[in-house]
Amino acid sequence: MQLIEINKARYRKHLNRVIAGCGIGLAVGSLAISQTLIALFPDESGSHFHWNLIGVAITSVGLAWLLNKYRTHSFMTEVVYVWELKKALNKITRKMAKLKAAGREGNADALLAIHYSYAGSRLLWLLDDNLITMDDLAIKQAELESVAAQYNVTLNVEDYDASILKQF
Question: Which spans are transmembrane here (predicted)?
Fold first, then answer.
């Protein structure tokens, strides 16, 4: 997955609309389904927890289906890209201890994966205005570049491929 520049204003606007739509859809859908089930199958004890739970579950599945169906729509381009980037970074994060150990030994693939993780994190944090941790990221990036220079490894984000994680 290549890192690309995202229009921050468009991304935030579309993400907020997707979140609001999902929230409203979940509230309306689950209430409509659960109230319909309660009307059709009333419980004499007055407990309708299971109907409410079924309403939430059905609506959640429906929203997931809709999001998946429209993930290729132009409105969702930036939102889906960020979701996919977060998924890719999460895969790296789960293997970060092994990657750092291999990187200290000069493994070029490990260093490249860590470099991609730092560059992707920087992109996400800028999109989300999470500037507090940028100084820590800059320090880690400098340490990574020092190790890469020590082993004469050139790091280029475009060279990253998720398949290199399989060896760790």
Answer: 18-42, 48-67
Record the pTM.
0.84
pLDDT in tens, 56-96: 999 999 999 999 999 999 999 999 999 999 999 999 999 99
* Structure-block tokens of residue 55: 């309403």
Minimal CA–CA distance to 89: which of 165, 12, 167?
A: 165
**What is the C-alpha separation between 161 and 108, in angstroms, rounded?**
13
148, 136 Cβ separation under 8 angstroms: no
**Phi, psi (5° rounding) for residue 115?**
-60, -45
Three-state DSSP at 147 gives: helix
Contact of 37 with 54, CB cutoff 8 Å: yes
- CA–CA distance, 88 with 125 (Å, rounded to integer): 15
Question: Which of 50, 166, 12 lies closest to 98 in space, CA to CA?
Answer: 166
